[in-house]
Amino acid sequence: MSSDKFNHKPAKLNDFLYGILRGNPVLVLMIGLCPVLAVSTTLFNGVGMSVAVAFVLVGSNLIISLVRKYTPQQIRIPIFIIIISTFVTVADYVIKAYSPQLYRQLGVFIPLIVVNCVIIGRAEAFAYRNKAWSSVLDGIGTSIGFLIVLFFISALREFFGMGSLLGNQLISKPALIMAMPPGGFITIGALMALLTFLRKKR
User: Fold this and answer.
1) What is the DSSP string of 111-168?
2) CA distances from 78 to 64, 72, 74, 110 (A)
3) Beta bridge partners of 169
């Protein structure tokens, strides 16, 4: 028996881990950067957006996988968008009802989840070609990867750009550039460099 079988993770575990590190949507694939840059000025907004994206991603991955055998190749993208927009609408109404402050802060970026490259990319690249359970694991893993990155970006930008964390003032003279779009690019670049360093060291 080949020793390779003992050196590889099970397929289901690979589906889960892919979006966290090797295929992280922000730091590796560099997709979905628009909402990341726009909402990551505070930790509250970043976590809120991550939860909304996770709900839409896992739900749409599941449904797309279940109907993939009945989805004509020629019209798969419109069908993906209809499924995704349904989950986005649910997320939009729930956030508006239970967290009006978050709803005001995220604004148009909640409806724009419909065309988020992370969601459509995983639907096309994975859910349309794999079974339901694998697609759910892929969605969960990708959501965790997105959440981790957005958590650190938001925390760093709020702390250094506004001098606060979750609304609590911590420093009196923040670097305002970190709260502006250039600060988002600087933070993403620094995290990408750190991830590359760790991967090469490993």
Assistant:
1) GGGGG-HHHHHHHHHTGGGS-HHHHHHHHHHHHHHHHHHHHHHHHHHHHHHHSEETTE
2) 12, 11, 9, 19
3) 164
Burial of 66 (0-12, 13-18, 19+ CB in 10 A): middle
The Cα–Cα gap between 46 and 43 comes to: 5
Q: What is the pLDDT of residue 10?
A: 62
Whether 3 shows a pLDDT value over 60: the answer reads no
E strands within the chain?
164-165, 168-169
Residue type, 101: Q
User: How far is 32 from 128, CA to CA, in rounded Å?
Assistant: 20
Question: Residue holding tokens 């239970």?
Answer: 98
Helix axes 43-67, 132-162, angle to 10 degrees: 170
What is the Cα–Cα distance from 9 to 14, expressed in whole angstroms?
Answer: 6
pLDDT band at 6, cuts 50/70/90?
very low
Quick count: other Cβ atoms within 10 Å of Cβ 85?
A: 17
> What pLDDT does 1 receive?
41
Q: What is the pLDDT of residues 35-88, one digit of tens each?
A: 898 899 999 999 999 999 999 999 999 999 999 999 999 999 999 999 999 999
Taking Cα atoms as reference points, which of 60, 171, 200 lies closest to residue 120?
Answer: 60
Sign of CA dihedral 178, 184, 189, 190: positive
